[in-house]
Amino acid sequence: MSRIRSSEITPKHVYLNRRTFMRTSAAGIVGAAAVGSALRWPTDMSAQGHGLRKLEGVRKSSLSTTETPNSYDHVTGFNNFYEFASGAGDGPKKLAGRFRPTPWSIAVEGHVARPASYALDDFIKPHVLEERIYRFRCVEAWSLVVPWIGIPLADVLKRVEPTSKARFVEFYTLHDVGQFPQQRTDVLEWPYIEGLRLDEAMHPLTILAVGLYGEVLPNQNGAPIRLVVPWKYGFKSIKSIVKMRFVERPPINTWQQQYPQAYGFYANVNPAVDHPNWSQAREARLPWLFRTTRTLPFNGYADQVQHLYAGMDLRRNY
Predict the structure, then answer these.
(1) Looking at residues 93-122, what average pLDDT do you find?
(2) Overall average pLDDT of the 46-56 stretch
(3) pLDDT band for position 304 (50/70/90)?
(4) Quick check: helix, strand or coil at residue 54?
(5) Is residue 315 part of a domain?
(6) Per-residue pLDDT averaged across 78-86, rounded?
(7) For position 140, which CATH number holds?
(8) Which domain holds residue 40?
(9) How many domains, the chain?
C-alpha cells in the first residue's frame, strides 16, 4: 500500500478546526428568506443562514466556473476571519452573530477625482449584481467553490475616477473592538489592510461581493461587502471593507507585515512556491481532508490573468 506523504495532509490546526466544523454544520438548516429591500439586513443576525435577505435582480455571469459550488454549510461554516477568531474553522461563525453590518459606509480617498463617503446602497445600486461561481483557494491549502454575488470592482473604480497618480488601491477592514473581539489582541496589526495594483483591481474577474447563494453575505463571510480576487490566495480578499484609498506606492498588507517570508504583496496562487511550513502543490477541496487536488497556477485562471505578470519573477514576487 502506498503511503500518504505528510506534505499531502492538511495542517493540524486546519484539521482540528474542520472536525468541529463537520460536527456542527450538519445541524444547520437554511430557512426561508425574508422579503425586503435587496441590501437591507435583518435586525436580528443571530440566526445566520436562516432567512438572510434575498438579493433581487441577480444575473448569471459568463465568467463563472462550471464546477459545482460547495454546500452552504461548507462556505459559511469554515472561514478565516481573524477579527473574530484565529485560524480557519467554525470560530467566526460562532462569534459573528452580534456583528451589525448596517448602517454601513465606504470612504474613497487618495488620488481620485471623486473622493467621498458612500453609503453602501449608494455604492452598489447603480450596478447590476452578478452571480460569479469562483474557485477559492486558501494559503493553508484548502479550497472551495463559492457562488459569490457582487459587482465588478472596475465599475466602482470607473465611477470614482482614479487620477494618473493612482497606481494601487488600498483597502481597510472596519476597526471596532466592540464588534471584533480579536481586535482587542495583538495577534495582528489592526485594522486589516490589503492592496491591489490598479490593473489587477480593474480586471474583469475582480469583484466586490455582497452576497452568497442568492442572499446577503453572512457576517462570518465578510458582511456587508468584501473583495474577491479568485486567482489569489484567500487572505487577499479583505472583508468588511470601510475604506478604499488610491495611492502611488504598493501598500504593505497585513500578512506581509506579519510574516513576510510567507505572505508577499501579490499572493498569486503558485503551486511552485511553497509556504515556509508546507507545500502548495496540492490542496484539500472541502469537505475532504487530504490534499488530493492538484493546485493550478493562478488557481486555474492563468489564461485570463497571467499577462498581468509578464516578465515578472513570480518566485520573488510571491
Answers:
(1) 96
(2) 68
(3) very high
(4) strand
(5) no
(6) 96
(7) 3.90.420.10
(8) 6-309
(9) 1
Q: Which long-range contacts (CB under 8 A, 24 or more apart) does 273-279 make?
A: 273/314, 273/315, 273/318, 275/139, 275/141, 277/11, 278/7, 278/11, 278/141, 279/7, 279/8, 279/141
- Which of 134, 111, 130 is closest to 58 using CA atoms? 130
SS3 of the chain: helix, strand, coil, percent, to 5: 25, 25, 50
| Cis amide leading into 218 (omega within 30) | no
In a domain, 318, yes or no: no
Taking alpha carbons only, the member of 24, 32, 37, 68 closest to residue 49 is 32
Number of helices (H), then strands (E), belonging to the chain: the values are 8, 15
CA separation, residue 195 to residues 142, 158, 227 (Å): 23, 17, 10
C-alpha cell at 218: 453572512
CB 53 within 8 A of CB 33: yes
Q: Which of the four pLDDT bands, split at 50, 70 and 90, describes residue 275?
A: very high
pLDDT category at 13 given cuts 50, 70, 90 is very low
Residue 81 reports pLDDT greater than 90 = yes
Please check whether residue 316 lies inside any domain of the structure: no
Give the residues across from 143 on adjacent strands. 137, 285
Q: Indicate whether 1 belongs to any domain.
A: no
